[in-house]
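REQUEST ID: PR-0412
SUBMITTED BY: lab tech R.K.
PRIORITY: routine
TASK: structure prediction, single protein chain
INPUT:
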Amino acid sequence: MELIHLQRLIPGDRLPSERQLADLLEVSRPSLREALHILQAQGLVHIKHGQGTYVQEPIVAQELRASMMSKTHGLHELFDAREVLEVPAARWAAEKATKEDIRHLRATLNQIDTVTSIDPIDYGQLQTLDAKFHLTIVEIAGNPFINQTLNVLQDVMKMSMETTLRLPGRSEISRVEHNAILSAIESGDGLLASKLTLEHITGARDTAISGAKNREEK
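STATUS: complete
OUTPUT:
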């Protein structure tokens, strides 16, 4: 589990081969197989015979996803949830972020810049990278439950967020706000990071709701 965390593996990612894992962890292959079967029983990995072992979304997150997908949620309540999860997480991330964490966040923003510089913009990829930036901040904050919950929430909101990023000027506004949030985290200013995160979510909320109203009127 520590290896999965250190390598920032996410659900769907494949673990190294059994031989590589045994060498890397300095354990025997029978011990490794036993550990992998325990993790599979806990719902943390999925062993596909002949293909390898893959990281799996925790059962709690799967149940939360199923519950959220089975109901209709308004944009207001979804953005309320983002505020509850992300605003304090930004403050905690500013207190805990390492140089490697900052490098990882900046790399994601650089990827966003690359995507937005190509015409036509791949908005699906842009939304994925946007979500990755926010999820990484929550991961740095160090609360696994909040991380899992936001992961599910981002999936539920995927369509509306991709539509929001398509609106004129929104991707540039997000770029500026993302960089400001990263600067606050890098400087260790938790209060500023949480304040900027709240402003960012509020702006995205207003844009998403305005866009939804415009689509209804048409």
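NOTES: The chain has eleven helices and two strands.
REVIEWED BY: pending
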